[in-house]
Amino acid sequence: MILNNRIDFAVVFSVKNANPNGDPVGDNRPRTTSDGFGEVSDVCLKRKIRNRLQANKNPIFVQSDYFCDDGEKSLSDRFNNYIGKDKDKESIAKKVCEKWLDVRAFGQVFAFKGKKEKEIDEVSLGIRGPVTIQSAFSIEPIEVESIQITKSVNSETTDKGGKSPDTMGMKHRVNAVYVTYGSISPQLAEKTGFTKEDANQIKEALKTLFVGDESAARPSGSMKIIKVIWWEHNNKLGQYSSAKVHDSLTVDASGEVSLNELDGLKPEIFEG
């Protein structure tokens, strides 16, 4: 069933002695804003959502190399091997939305050439998805703790036989509470075929966002969902603007959540 009601949502999560989203430009230190608040990018959050959707046996187009389950080596291969020689953009858009949940949820830009350019023209196609999610920001400015670590072995051989400089490294960690907001548009859901069942898949993915996401930077148990708040409106346009809905939520530095009641719009609240 196609989604007919607009949805707004929020996710509150905690970080304990972990690096929730390293910045490659900043020596992989946790991302921060110019005024010192911690940030987890929307791209990072969508990657985690995709991983959870894929773990629940949904076909995913933008797969992580670590979790690739169809043997394709690139997005271009995945696209061309599925589409074949079809050149009609409307037909292609329908096929990719029916095939991959993340495409009909988040949208996707397809600009790939076929393997044999004489047979398959370049396809340039943009699909706008109904699900949007913002970057997550910490409730308070964060303090980044950094420690120097020593690797157990040399990565490179040195002329003098001593340890190479790359045996030394840094690890960074923070302790903070973050919150992110998002929404789902029924108007765009009609375009991609995004259904009520798909929305429920997104909800379940948010509730288990950090399951299977462990790494050296994010040890098991260091990232925890505190609350998922899910507002479902009674019409396509929504009873209130997304800004007003999101502003009705207040989160303190300890992760305590409070809500200002909006007449006729009662959210579902899920514990992490």
Task: Walk me through this protein's architecture.
The protein has 272 residues and is α+β, with helices and mostly antiparallel strands. The chain is 24% helix and 31% strand. It is built from seven helices and 14 strands. The chain has helices spanning 42-55, 75-83, 89-99, 101-106, 186-192, 196-207, 242-247, and strands at 7-18, 22-23, 29-30, 37-40, 107-112, 123-128, 131-133, 136-141, 145-150, 168-184, 223-232, 249-251, 257-259, 268-271. Strands 1, 4, 7, 8, 9, 10, 11 and 14 form an eight-stranded antiparallel beta sheet that branches. It has a two-stranded antiparallel sheet with strand order 2-3. A two-stranded antiparallel ribbon has the order 5-6. The longest helix is centred in the N-terminal third of the chain and has 14 residues, at 42-55. The relative contact order is 0.24.
